[in-house]
TrEMBL record:
Highest rank taxon of the organism: Eukaryota
Organism for this UniProt entry: Oikopleura dioica
Reaction equation(s) it catalyzes: N(4)-(alpha-D-Man-(1->2)-alpha-D-Man-(1->2)-alpha-D-Man-(1->3)-[alpha-D-Man-(1->2)-alpha-D-Man-(1->3)-[alpha-D-Man-(1->2)-alpha-D-Man-(1->6)]-alpha-D-Man-(1->6)]-beta-D-Man-(1->4)-beta-D-GlcNAc-(1->4)-beta-D-GlcNAc)-L-asparaginyl-[protein] (N-glucan mannose isomer 9A1,2,3B1,2,3) + 4 H2O = N(4)-(alpha-D-Man-(1->3)-[alpha-D-Man-(1->3)-[alpha-D-Man-(1->6)]-alpha-D-Man-(1->6)]-beta-D-Man-(1->4)-beta-D-GlcNAc-(1->4)-beta-D-GlcNAc)-L-asparaginyl-[protein] (N-glucan mannose isomer 5A1,2) + 4 beta-D-mannose; N(4)-(alpha-D-Man-(1->2)-alpha-D-Man-(1->2)-alpha-D-Man-(1->3)-[alpha-D-Man-(1->3)-[alpha-D-Man-(1->2)-alpha-D-Man-(1->6)]-alpha-D-Man-(1->6)]-beta-D-Man-(1->4)-beta-D-GlcNAc-(1->4)-beta-D-GlcNAc)-L-asparaginyl-[protein] (N-glucan mannose isomer 8A1,2,3B1,3) + 3 H2O = N(4)-(alpha-D-Man-(1->3)-[alpha-D-Man-(1->3)-[alpha-D-Man-(1->6)]-alpha-D-Man-(1->6)]-beta-D-Man-(1->4)-beta-D-GlcNAc-(1->4)-beta-D-GlcNAc)-L-asparaginyl-[protein] (N-glucan mannose isomer 5A1,2) + 3 beta-D-mannose
Keyword Ribonucleoprotein appears in the UniProt entry: no
GO MF annotation, one: calcium ion binding
Active site, per annotation: 154, 290, 399, 427
Membrane topology term: Single-pass type II membrane protein
Enzyme Commission code: 3.2.1.-
Protein name as it appears in the record: alpha-1,2-Mannosidase
UniProt entry keywords in alphabetical sequence: Calcium, Disulfide bond, Endoplasmic reticulum, Glycosidase, Hydrolase, Membrane, Metal-binding, Signal-anchor, Transmembrane, Transmembrane helix
Subcellular location: Endoplasmic reticulum membrane
Biological pathway: Protein modification; protein glycosylation
Group of enzyme by EC: hydrolase
Short name of one Pfam family: Glyco_hydro_47
Amino acid sequence: MHHVQVRMIPPDAEADAIRFEIDPEEPEYEFEQRDENSPEEIEPVPEKNHHDTSYGHWRGAGRENGNMTAIKGAFLHAWKGYSTYALGHDMLKPLSHRYEDWFTKGNDQMALTLIDSLDTMLIMNLTSEFKEARMFVKNRLSLEPDNARVNLFECTIRVLGGFISTYYLTGDELFKEKALDIGDRLLPAITSSKSSVPYSDINLRTRVAKQPAWGSSSSTSEVTTIQMEFGALSYISGDRHWDDAVRSVSRHISRLVAGKLDGLVPLWIDPKSGEFSKNGITYTMGARTDSYYEYLFKRWYQSGKNSEYSFMVQDFQESMEGVKKHLFGFTQPNNFLFVGEKVGSRFSPKMDHLVCFLPGTLALAVHENKLGPEWLEHAEKILETCHQFYVTETGLAPEISYFNIDNPAKPDLNIHTADRFSILRPETVESYFYLWRLTKNQKYRDWGWEFFQSLEKFARVQDGYTSISNVESRTKPAPKDKMESFFLGETLKYLYLLFSDDDMLPLSEWVFNTEAHPFRVQK
């Protein structure tokens, strides 16, 4: 497969580049010392995180190169649109200059985009933007909207995860306090269940948990992608009850037998019975189960490879053998490896873009000797297929692709009309980042840069970035007027880190949750 060789842009290549002079002896951000006569809004210097013995060194010694500067400029463009037209709300609608709320209710603003962006600002050394965001968190943010439909999983990975990572990066006690507050509010979704399976939704004000409006079950990924966040909360607070609650969920699901297929799990699980749903069982690495598999490995890794979590690695190893046995498929005519779905007894040659997280997790597991070396080859081949998602008119990927497995005269990928939209997801560039760090194959940086250029051409608008409706049309990509919070929290962060040196958030010391929030590997 031919790929374009992209030259790394050297520092100082662009006259209008945004730059910050960094003194390596200074912390990443520094607030003015409080004077007793000064206005209330001036913040004190934050305390250092006593768990972080290398405070101030996670940034590494490398200089920001031109690629990173350009990506930082994209973040600033997105942030300016959000802070101008949607500050405090959950997501920006950049074309109409409006906003869309999901958790926020009335004046109780949860500011999902802001929280998702905090650690990205720190990583990009955007000091003044971070100060303003911190001020909002301290003085205006609400963690108690009277909203009965706050999703446990989404709130955990974005809000709790965002606060924890910001605390890890800065040692600022404000973010620890916020993490403990939101953790307390989310916990009843786990503890009020009659079984060990959490409810999917909770009201953060009343702390009453319930099932989603559209059914009686929780999705498997949603109840098993809270372990890293609550585990970290126990670590930074010294109180084990958070970790005990989520480990009991993982233990329960590990012991379930009915419904599993060689380690693969169904989409749905019932909090009342504690069992997997028996109706219309589908096995997939995509929506509704994806991050279950991710956290099986990452929770063990995050724990400092603690034997308490060895059962999760064993479940991960078994499930990956199940993937190889039941979900691997090969396209015609170019023999691309993809991860399909098993619907009942039928194999479906369908793959969500969400599945593209998998190569990165596989590569990390190989690096830690928890999967054999052949799995690195599998990871690289799957990521090649993920790259094929981007071989479109716009260079942006559809949400879903189907694959040709039986006709050499047809193209390998078959993108259905309903699936041609792109919400600028991060999973493929996430895997580019891991594979670059672990293999140093230049093509991953090349592909990431091609993706960034496509974002600039087809998703950038005057006041931010927008999802598009048709990746197959250069002339009519049909902007959707929505900028997801994860575009700032994940997509641009992984792009920036793809071009960083290995000593910026080194993988031996940091692990990213499924919303790209970096957590310290526990010692």
